[in-house]
Structures are given as C-alpha cells and as structure tokens.
Amino acid sequence: MKLQLAIEWFLNPDHLPFIIAQRMGIFEKNGIEFELIEPDEHYDGLSELLAGNIAFATNEPLHLIEQFHENFLSLGMYFETQGGVLLKASSYDKLKNGETITVTTPVSNETTNTVGFEIIRRFYAQEGVEVTREQVTFVPNGFEHLKYMNEGADAGWLYFYNFEGVEAAHEGMEVLYLDAENARFANFSALDIFVNKPFYHQNTAVCEAFVSAIKEAILFIRDYPEIAMREYYAYTESESSPLMDDILHATMACFNPIFASHYEKELPILEFFTEIGITNLDVEKFKTAFLV
Q1: What kind and span of H or E run contains 192?
Q2: CB neighbours (10 Å) of residue 209?
C-alpha cells in the first residue's frame, strides 16, 4: 500500500524523520511505500486528509482545534520546540510607551492574529504594562521572519526557535523570545501526525507500522546525527551551510521517539485557546481526536 503524507507547507528540517525513514529503508522494512507531498496552501493537507485522498498529514495542534472535524485522529506530537513571537529588542519599549508595532506573519487571520496578540499581551502584562489590540498590526508576509524584521517589522509571529531563533543568533539580531515559558501560555509550537479516522480503523496495522517507522527514524537521527544531516542535504538537493547545520542540530533535539496519541498532552492547548475565546470546542469532543 502506498501511503502519502502531506506536510503543513514547505519541506524543512522539521520533516527529517520522514526523509530518514524513506532514505534509510525503514519504511521499506515495515512494508510501506511512501510519498511525501508539499501542499500549495497551509490547510490543503488537512482538507485532502478529510477527503480521503491521502493517508496522513502533519500540522500544528492549533489546526486540530481550529478546524476540528469528527474524522480527525492525531497519532501524536512527534516534534515540539519553543516558539511564538520573536520581538526585536530595539522595539521592546514601543508598546511600553504607548506606541504601535508591526508584526510580520505568514498566516494572518482572525484566529492566528488573536493568538499572536495574546502572547504579546501576556508578556507585557507580567511587567504591569497593558497593551491594547490597536497597538499591534499583523502584516501578512512569507516565512522569512528575519528578512521582514530587517526591513522594518518589529516582530515575527509564528516563529519556531529551532529555525528562526537559530537564524537570529547567526545574524546577531538582538531579540526577545516570547514563548510559552516567558509569556505563560500552553506551548503549541509543535507538529502532530494526523490520519483520517475511517482510514485508521480500516488499516490499523498499517498505521501502527507507519508510526513505528517514524519512531525508529527518530532514534536513528538521535544515534547518527551526521548521517541524518547528510541524507537531508541529499534529499533536498541543498548545500550545507553553518546556519543550516545549526538549524538541523537544533531541530534534531525536538523529535520525540516515544510520541503517542494521548489527549492529556494537548489538552492545555485547548484550554488556552478556550480561555482567549478563539474556540468553544467541547473537551469531550476534543478527546475523540486521540486514541487514549
């Protein structure tokens, strides 16, 4: 059986376990013929999954909640990093002084903008500073947060530390990381593997073999990081560089070889989004998106 997986957008080191499982024969050993798909838009993979056109998709936990459907089933969070809003240190005082800031983001809509603002609001509230929604303008751009921040944006929203955080350090840009730890919110800078529930129940053994292959690939990455890096560059037909080498090393530490489909891991994310008013998804319904 040929299994197709759509990633959440463009191919990057976050998808290394799928690359390693394919290139190192782990899928083949588990009887899996595999194809990785790069969708045109961020939500295409989940739509194709629900339509039954593909077996698996990856995406952030946010979208399980935002686009909840009774046929969504998470097989677990295989990748988790820190992330949120990347704020230029030189722009820090603007909000304290009642000024406005611009935030570059690859996904600008009411839901994501609300989350981004809440992260900023919580970060400043810890210092007794009240930030209003009118002070923060979200500007839709591409994924190149540092590029747009260098061009004038004060901050970047929806950053992952293993990528943009490493990039900021390489560029010597002084930034503040408004993440789950220092802005006090449930961390959702992560990726789940999703499957269509009817497909899972009709092909449980196949899905279990797929999960087993990904876990084996993550262990391989942990044991042989230099080989994993070499295979990434070969698969993507890209050149090694000091920046990308550091991004790969940072990313490899974010994979979880014992990930599982359990709602307790992601329930705090639902509670956070419920608290800030972007979902009214019932907890019991949410639980049905997991095996246990």
Answers
A1: strand 190-196
A2: 18
Q: How far apart are CA 195 and CA 50, in angstroms?
A: 8
Give the pair of three-digit tokens for residue 236. 């993507």
pTM: 0.94
175 alpha-carbon distance from chain centroid: 20
Query: Confidence band (pLDDT; 50, 70, 90) for 274?
Result: very high
Residue 172 tokens, joined: 């010597």
pLDDT class for 40, splitting at 50, 70, 90?
A: confident
**Encoding tokens for residue 220?**
């391989």
Q: How far apart are CA 21 and CA 204, in angstroms?
A: 19
Helix 204-223 with 16-23: angle, nearest 10 deg: 100
User: Could you tell me the domains of the chain?
Assistant: 2-80+190-287 (3.40.190.10), 83-183 (3.40.190.10)
Dihedral class, residue 160 (left if φ above 0, else alpha if ψ from -120 to 50, else beta): beta
Distance of CA 103 to the CA centre of its chain: 19
Q: Nearest to residue 262, comparing CAs of 78, 72, 76, 80?
A: 76
Q: Which pair of structure tokens corresponds to residue 258?
A: 């014992």
The confidence score (pLDDT) of residue 9 equals 81
Q: Can you tell me which residue has the tokens 């050149």?
A: 239
- How far apart (Å, rounded) are the C-alpha atoms in residues 204 and 197? 10
